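Tutorial, part two.
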Amino acid sequence: MGVLNVTPDSFSDGGRFFGFDAAITRAHELAEQGADFIDIGGESTRPGSEPVSADEEIRRVVPVIETLAKEIAVPLSIDTYKATVADAALGAGAVIVNDISGLTFDSGMSDVVVRHGASVVIMHMKGTPKNMQENPQYDDVVHEILGFFQAQCKKAKDSGIAQVIVDPGIGFGKKLEHNLELIKRLREFNRLGCPIMVGPSRKSFLGALLNLPVNERIEGTAAAVTGCILNGAHLVRVHDVKEMKRVAAVADAMKTE
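Running the prediction step on this input gives:
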C-alpha cells in the first residue's frame, strides 16, 4: 500500500504532494512503481498534530480521488477517522477506509462503510494523535491490542462490513520497545482470521534505533518491512513503493510458512 499524503504538514514528506497536480503525479508514480493500493490522507496524524475539519479534509482529498478513480486501476483507500469524509471519499471512488481509530472516534463510520460496500482497516492507537506519544504504557502490548481487535472486528462484522483488515499501529501510542515487540510477535494476530497490515515506513522508532532523520530511514524501513513480512504481515503500508516492492519480493521468497 503506497502512501499519498495530501497535507501541508506530513511528518514524512513535509507537504510535497499537498497540491492537486503534485498529488496526481505522485499517485501515478506509485501505481507505476507497483503499488497494489494507494492510501490517500488529508489530515496529518503525526505525534502532536492538530485535527483539521471534515470540510477541509474533503476539500483536499475528494478531487484527487475522483480524478485517480478515472485514471488508474489501483484500488484507492481513504485514510480518515471521520464518517463524513469517508462517505465523500467512497462516493468519489475509494473502496477502502483506513481508520486509525479502529472505529472508535466516529459512531457513524461502520454504517458508511457498509452502505458503500467498502473494506475497512481497523488500526490500534492509544490516545489521539495529539497525545498518543505521551508515555504510553502496556502490561503486554500484543495481548492488549489483540483484545482490542477482537472487540472491534466483532463490531465491524456484526454491522455488516464484509472485509476487515487489522493494523497494530506502529508508532501510534507505542514506545520503541512496543513497536519491536509487535513486529516480533505479529503472527499472534493471525488468530483473528483477518489480513494483517503494518506501517513501519520511516517511523520514529527507526530514527531512534539508527539516530537518523526521516529522510534517511529507507534502509531501516527495508529491514522493518522484511521483519513484518517474515512474521506474518499480509500488507505493508510504505512511502517508498519501488524499493519496498523489491524488499517484499525477497522477503516473500524467504518465508517458511
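The chain has one domain: 2-199. In part three we will examine how such features are distributed along the chain.
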